Amino acid sequence: MYQYSRDIEIVCLDGDNTNNMNNYLGNTPMYDGTHKLHKGIDNTLRFKIKDTDRKPIDLTNKTIIWKMYDRDSRENVLFKYLTVTNATKGMASLIVHTADTIMLPQGFYQFAMYTVENGVEQILYTDTYDNAKGHVEVVDDVYPEFEESQSTETFFDDGTYFISTAFNGSASTSKSKSIHTLAIYYDGFTGTVEVQGDLSEQPSSSHDDWFLISPKLFSNPTITVNNESGVQALVLESNVNWIRIRYQATAGTIKKVLLRN
User: What range defines the domain where residue 165 resides?
Assistant: First the structure.
């Protein structure tokens, strides 16, 4: 594993030493690659801003603006002010926070930068061909992607029980211990609740294929509830293809059930 700071060199045709400059960007970096922004974490981009003689630009009294936009639609997606970290050495940085990229699709984007001083804007270049755009790739490979819980508010009355729709038990993951968490939302509920599993390839329509599962910390698969409003959490340890709950009520109802595998 490596941890390092990658500096991005940017060139400014600054008026302070125009007499010493060439009129072309002949002394800039040979190649400016694609810089990556990783979703799920704060990203810090560090910049060194130089003139065409590779000398640092004095950033005192300069405001530096960074814009990132969609490569195809040209729509602006991020707008940032850089923080000057060392004005005399032309060094600045910006933090692209987790919240800035959370809604951005993975893929390639471009960025542009310019300085503002006394109301005058000055473009910043990224290569030797007068290009003023850099390249950014947004990637989502650092942290797991959030997945919503399975949810149902639908229950079928078979004449004896109210039965929920079937949840996927994720048995295809082939884990030695499959842990599931259930959240049951009660509304003035009094009655009994049971969790069932099914090993069929598709959720079986036959009640005989479904069997009771005892939640952890419960010795009896039939859970008695008395005048409950709110959420009850249950933890299951079971390798099954499908999971559902069924209940009998003497008062109130169950409004919703959530499941996470």
Answer: 150-260
Answer yes or no: is 1 within a domain.
Answer: no
Residue 143: count of CB within 10 angstroms of its CB:
11
Which among 139, 164, 198 is the end of a domain? 139
Distances 186 to 77, 102, 253, 255 between C-alpha atoms, Å:
42, 33, 6, 6
Cβ burial of 136 (10 Å; 0-12, 13-18, 19+) is: buried
Segment (H or E) for 136: strand 133-139
Using the 3D structure, point to which of 139, 171, 195 is the last residue of a domain.
139
**Residue 139, strand partner residues:** 38
With contact defined as beta carbons under 8 Å apart, do 88 and 58 qualify?
Answer: yes
Q: What local confidence, expressed as pLDDT, does residue 30 receive?
A: 47
- Which amino acid does the sequence have at 217? L
The three-state (H, E, C) secondary structure of 150-205, written as one string: EEECCEEECCCCEEECCEECCHHHCCCCCEEEEEEEEEEEEEEEEEEEECCCCCCC
* Cα torsion 156, 162, 168, 171: sign: negative
For 127-139, what is each residue's pLDDT tens digit? Answer: 767 788 889 999 9
* pLDDT tens, residue by residue, 182-212: 999 999 999 999 999 999 999 999 999 999 9
Are both 84 and 198 inside the same structural domain?
no
Name the residue among 87, 82, 17 with its Cα closest to residue 52: 17
pTM, to two decimals: 0.55
CA–CA gap between residue 208 and residue 197 (Å, rounded)? 11
